[in-house]
Amino acid sequence: MKQISIYIGLKTRNMKANITPKTALKKATTELKKVGIIGFNAQTIKGLWKGKAEKCLNISFINNFGTSKADIVTATENIKTALNQESILITEQATGYSFI
Residue 59 in contact with residue 6, Cβ under 8 Å? Predict the structure, then answer.
């Protein structure tokens, strides 16, 4: 199974306008739900882009939903466009998990 993390900057492409975590989370929730991702963790973290600090929204989930990487990328591209981002980072790593 893969753990997927998506990092969304909370400033627009030109670094001039702020995006609220609530706005980013709402858009991410909508787009991820469209591809079958119905549960994840979200937290606001501090990131750095082009030498400038910015808040980021980190979304993390175990992909036990059967969602393809292509669908995750499509959802992320939609988030990127809607939030006027230059880029969004997606990471994945193999992991074990248990629901207890």
Answer: yes
Tokens of 99: 């629901």
- Please give the DSSP secondary-structure letter assigned to residue 36: T
For residue 11, what is the DSSP state? B
What is the rounded CA–CA span in Å between residue 71 and residue 78? Answer: 11
User: For the whole prediction, is pTM greater than 0.85?
Assistant: yes
Start-to-end C-alpha separation, the chain: 17
- Number of neighbouring beta carbons within 10 Å of residue 96: 7
pLDDT digits (tens, 9 = 90+) for 39-49: 999 999 998 87
Q: Please, where are the H alpha helices in 35-91?
A: 69-82
Q: Is the dihedral of CA 1, 99, 28, 50 positive or negative?
A: negative
Read off the pLDDT band of 89 (50, 70, 90).
very high
Return the closest-CA partner of residue 1 out of 64, 73, 90: 64
